[in-house]
Design brief:
It comes from Streptomyces davaonensis (strain DSM 101723 / JCM 4913 / KCC S-0913 / 768). This protein has about 450 residues and is an alpha/beta fold. The chain is built from 16 helices and 23 strands. The termini are far apart.
């Protein structure tokens, strides 16, 4: 049994596409690498093994989630390990290239690997002089490297060139060295699809097209051509992580609200987010509510579409997981969580109701079609004649959406979110396609069109 099988516990956040890691140090203590604010899975893993987190290491100032390192410092007394170049404003061990941290038998060596961010570090885990593995954060990842455009267009190419040098440095490690990235499939910080989240240096030399690039210019061109859009909340979260997110004194609670209280909150500028399944929202919802069904990707779309400084009221279905809903909001910095109510409570309290039609693919007919998927999805195959506007850009481009559109994505969740935004902007006679382009092709017998 190898080290990773016995003492490394990956903790995957499927919604954000990230992995944190818990390392059993063999003496009742543990190292946590890139822990997020939602520490439930980490706590469960640590308790199962009887571990106390003694070290919490952040590879970089994360843009997609709030760090849980401060919470671990407050709760467990963990030493926070992070880059000196990050200029964090809270107590931490400030590390630079080549610094080593004694973990009590194992050693954590700091490697400066800028590119994804300026201050990015990788952490090489050593047993004596033997390289066990390297925590690469958003530097070398499975099949690619993380994006370099988070600090603005004027820095993108410069950071891509830094990323090239960082990957080359990591590639000099022995082929057997395990690679434990933070970003992976499903992360808007990275590009490649796929199921594998860990790898080895040798495997990446064979399979990673960026490592095979013959020169720096080719690397930069290939990396930048793979980048799509990313959630708007990424632009603010790194600074929150630099200052340090608030430490939570207790587990969060989401109180039940009356219809009258919700009307008052709406009058004060609250946003209403309906987290029920798509059919429930279609059948009846609070006018002006935004549909974001509660699923793994909930946090991404909440952060992309709604402001973080307005109170949030959630419309929930009976039996939905309220702690999950709360933690998905908190892990990306949404803390003004006013409470929740059911649609039945809203109606019983005299509230009005709006609806949106659900359509099967055989009923679209000649209606205009709006495709709200990511550009890369659209290029892989789209309904001919469909207007393409990514969901993340739709609120600002609602006037470009065709009147009376049938809105679609891949399955229906993003499409209903888009339809709710359009309805809120004044569009009428909207419908949402049940399913996606493949269902249209099957229903009509016509091929999808590839390309832009």
């Amino acid at each position: 049994m190898g080290f990773a099988d016995d003492r490394l516990i990956p903790l995957v956040d499927a919604g954000l596409g990230n992995s944190a890691y818990l390392v059993d140090l063999g003496d009742g203590r543990a190292l946590a690498v890139d822990p997020g604010r939602d520490l439930r899975a980490l706590r469960t893993a640590a308790e199962r093994r009887g571990l106390t987190v003694a070290f919490a290491a952040d590879t970089h100032l994360h843009a997609d989630f709030l760090t849980g390192a401060l919470q671990l410092a407050a709760d467990d007394g963990a030493a926070v390990l992070a880059s000196a170049a990050g200029h964090r404003t809270f107590p931490h061990t400030a590390l630079a290239d080549g610094d080593e941290t004694d973990l009590g038998g194992l050693t954590l060596r700091t490697l400066a690997t800028p590119g994804h961010t300026d201050e990015h570090l990788s952490f090489l885990l050593l047993d004596g002089t033997r390289e066990l593995g390297v925590f690469t954060g958003g530097s070398l990842i499975v099949g690619s490297a993380a994006r370099t455009d988070l600090l603005g267009a004027d820095r993108t190419e410069e950071l891509a060139r830094a990323q090239y040098r960082s990957l080359r440095r990591l590639a000099d490690l022995p082929d057997r060295t395990a690679v434990w990235p933070t970003h992976g499939a499903g992360s808007f910080c990275s590009a490649p699809p796929g199921a594998e989240r860990t790898t080895t240096i040798g495997a990446q030399k064979q399979a990673n097209a960026l490592l095979a690039a013959p020169d720096e210019d080719t690397f930069v061109r290939e990396l930048l051509s793979s980048l799509g859009s990313y959630p708007s909340y990424f632009d603010r979260l790194a600074e929150t992580n630099r200052r340090g997110p608030a430490v939570l004194a207790a587990g969060p609670a989401l109180p039940a609200l009356s219809a009258a209280a919700v009307r008052e909150l709406i009058g004060q500028g609250a946003q209403v987010v309906d987290v029920r399944p798509v059919p429930d929202f279609a059948a009846g919802h609070i006018p002006g509510a935004v549909s974001i069904p509660l699923r793994d990707q909930f946090a991404t779309w909440l952060g992309w579409l709604l402001p973080d400084d307005a109170p949030l009221v959630f419309v929930t279905a009976p039996g939905q997981d309220l702690p999950e809903l709360t933690w998905q909001a908190l892990k990306i910095g949404y803390e003004r969580l006013a409470g929740h109510l059911t649609m039945d409570a809203w109606i019983a309290g005299g509230g009005g109701r709006a609806t949106i039609e659900l359509l099967t693919a055989d009923r679209i007919g000649d209606r205009p079609v709006l495709d709200v998927r990511q550009q890369s999805e659209r290029e892989a195959g789209h309904i001919p004649g469909a207007v393409g506007i990514e969901l993340g850009a739709l609120a600002a481009r609602a006037d470009e959406a065709p009147s009376g559109a049938v809105v679609h994505c891949g399955h229906g969740e993003r499409a209903m979110t888009a339809a709710s935004l359009l309805q809120r902007a004044g569009h009428k006679d909207l419908a949402v396609l049940e399913g996606g382009p493949a269902d249209w092709a099957k229903a009509t017998g016509r091929p999808l069109r590839e390309g832009a």
